[in-house]
Amino acid sequence: MTSEASLQYVEGYQDEDDHLAEARRRADEVGVTPIGPAGGATLRFLASVLDARAVAEVGTGTGVSGLWLLRGMAPDGVLTSVDLEAEHQRHARQVFSAAGFAPQRFRLIAGSALDVMPRLTDDGYDLVFVDGDKVEYGEYLEQALRLVRPGGVVVFDNALWHDRVADPERRDAETVAIRDLLTQAATDERLVPTLLPVGDGLLAARRVG
């Protein structure tokens, strides 16, 4: 059993610089909860392993996860990020620019993910990261499987949902939707999934067919 001290050690293993600190400060201001440092480092690692040139993200927030992803992607890689809140994306754009990323490295689309994702290119992405409406996670997975190329990876944040997923007494809509997502990923023959106890939990799955 991993102790609380070890989990905290993992969270603090990767130092975050001033640009990430600024993105987190802005997240606090607008009331969004970004991915933690260990989860962000995992995203950067996956983007780097894939040598990702195209990444799609659901849930821009103020740019914390996007900054981690951009730092792992290929130098010519483009991040496409979708969020309902254009104001949040304004903060993310400023964070990305201050961190030295040229405007052509990121495309921010304001709108509902389930409206925007069907307009994105089939098999066009090396990695799809989802941190959106938990109730819609199952629908996001179907869209993500269309978007990610064979050999690419789909990642969902909050896969443990504040310890609620593991508690059978929890039957709220968000918890049930995440449990259904985990079952869906575990039984889909197109996927090789793993559930990582990083931060609030990351579901990562490689598309094999």
TrEMBL record:
GO MF entries: O-methyltransferase activity; S-adenosylmethionine-dependent methyltransferase activity
SUPFAM superfamilies: S-adenosyl-L-methionine-dependent methyltransferases
Domain of life according to the entry: Bacteria
Gene3D superfamilies: Vaccinia Virus protein VP39 (3.40.50.150)
Coiled-coil regions, chain positions: none
Protein name as it appears in the record: Methyltransferase
PANTHER family from the UniProt entry: O-METHYLTRANSFERASE RV1220C-RELATED, O-METHYLTRANSFERASE-RELATED
Pfam families to which the protein is assigned, alphabetical: Methyltransf_3
